[in-house]
Amino acid sequence: MPTPSASEPGVGIIFPSGMLGAGFTAESIKRGIAMGATAIAIDGGSTDSGPYYLGAGVAKTAAAAVERDLQILLAAACENRIPLIVGSCGTSGTDAGVDWVAGIAARIAARDRLSFRMARIYSELDADTVIAAIDEGRVHGLPPLGELSPDTVRACTHIVALMGHDPIAAALEAGAQVVLAGRATDTSMVAAVALMRGMPAGPTWHAAKTVECGGQCTTNPAAGGVFVRIDTEGFTVIPLSPDAACTPSSVAAHMLYENADPFRLLEPTGTLDTSAATYSALDERTVRVEGSRFELSRFPTAKLEGARLAGHETISIVGIRDPHILASLDVWLGYLRSVLEDRVRSTLDLDPRHYELALHCYGADAVLGPLEDAAGPPREIGLLFKVRAPRQETATAIAKIANPLLLHLPLPGMDHLPSFAFATSPAEIERGPSYEFALNHVLELERGTDLFRIDLGEVTGA
Amino acid sequence: MPDRTLSLGELADQVRSKNAGPFWITLDVFFKTVSDYQRAIISGVVSQQAIAELYRVNPAAVRYFEIPGILAVKISFPRPVTAGSFEDRDLHAGQQHVPLAGLRIPPV
């Protein structure tokens, strides 16, 4: 039974779940320690939940959920004297996100009497730094975006650079046991540990990509995280839960997950190439991968992420069940838009180019929009009425002007006023600031640690 | 004559969609057997051109991959609207596989 053990060569790492705060069991961490883990790595963020978290600089995860997970991981790291690395702290990896997780870690340390050396790695950039890099010709667009203009940079409320393994390895080499990183690539935490312990780049980066979503590379992603052992020839991956399995297909398929190219993955220091990788089952639950390659780029790069404030939103939700309206829904929606535009013009003196309107009909085509090809009228719809304007007051005023139309607007030629079904009172729901991703660019660096600031300190539990 | 075609969703083990970063969408199709995989490939129904028409995007921007080692086909293209922007209807692009799954695949 080739279950990994502490005596095997290579670097063993626990990746407990896809996201700090998503939850895992303390038992799963114990199993990973027994398999011979010499580090714990976990991701704390992503851009996947949209631009709000970067734009506003707040976390998607609940503080209580982060505290619950971090408590288990800090206890395991301290008890076994192994490093714990958290990437993309606070969802978007802003400086405030790093400090938010650091504050939670300090509270846990005081309560549970834990002491450790902790590094915070900040990755937020100010606009001037990015604009200077543009002027030096060091910023390049990634498809589908083109060149970056200084105006776009200045419009961003927060800009972060994605660190690779270098800043994390520097923090570990400086003696940090706990590393709280700002925005970092999903793979950087695992890669930092393996590369600084001399493992080759091909197996390291492929292993890091394989485990970056925890159990997503297993047959039962809900069952928890994974353990990976990286050595000089390849890597071996096994789920932490006995209720899950890694199979050659489940592991190979993970290269496809949230990645545009199934064989190549761009990292700050080069490109992972898995086209020659082989996947074999060591037993029913353990997979061995060999043959992964990594092409070093001429110089390191850091991908930039930025979100700009695009206005303020107000929404209303109204249900329509009347079959007469539903039989001519497109006509009704067009009529709604034109009547509303006239009323906004006459009451607020605003032209449609000064605000944005979206009418998404849940139950009809809200999800696919013009790609929807289902025939026939829907049984009912929930109309999500969205308006965005530069100021919140304007967006809400437009929604209030829309209110009597969303309540009573007939079809053209109808001889009575229908009434529709609002979901809430008041109908208008202010959504606050609305952000959009504005950057998809890379910045050339001289060294992988450039731009990133490491703040090292002792956390001493009372 | 009976319809001997199958939808891609019926033929495949799984058809899924997801963001690949906020600016790209990626579609994965996994097959259970070599013959199912080959039926889909040989049909030529899933092509850059077909995807461009189905999703109303520029065919030159569509990336298409066949991965016989794991009996999978992968397609990626730039998102027509950026994830989470005002007009976006599917933040994680998690439901955008449905048009692809509806393509009809003829018998070999």
What would you note in describing this structure?
The complex is a heterodimer of chains A (462) and B (108). Chain A has 13 helices and 22 strands. Chain A has 462 residues and is α+β, with helices and mostly antiparallel strands. In chain A, a hairpin with a 2-residue loop joins β11 (264-267) and β12. In chain A, α3 crosses α4 (95-112), α8 (188-196) packs antiparallel against α9 (201-211) and α12 (329-348) packs across α13. The longest helix of chain A is centred in the last third of the chain and has 20 residues, at 329-348. The model of chain A has no long low-confidence stretch (mean pLDDT 96). By secondary structure, chain B is an alpha+beta fold. Helices cover 24% and strands 27% of the residues of chain B. Chain B has helices at 8-11, 34-43, 48-55, 98-101, and strands at residues 6-7, 14-19, 24-30, 63-67, 72-78, 104-105. In chain B, the strands form two sheets. Chain B has a four-stranded antiparallel β-sheet. Chain B has a two-stranded antiparallel sheet with strand order 1-6. In chain B, a hairpin with a 4-residue loop joins β2 and β3. Chain B is elongated and about 45 Å long. The A-B interface holds A 47-52, 142-145, 248-249, 252-253, 256-263, 279, 310-311, 313, 356, 358, 360, 366-371, 373, 386, 388, 434-437, 440 and B 18-24, 26, 28, 30, 54-56, 61, 63, 65, 67, 69-70, 72, 74, 76, 78, 82-87, 89-92, 95-96, 98-99, 102.
How is this structure best summarized?
With 462 residues, chain A is an alpha+beta fold. Helix content of chain A is 31%, strand content 29%. The radius of gyration of chain A is 26 Å and the shape is elongated.
- What's the β-strand tally of chain A? 22
Largest β sheet strand count, sense and barrel closure of chain A: 10 strands, mixed
The proportion of residues forming helix of chain A, as a percent range, comes to 25-40%
Apparent shape of chain B: elongated
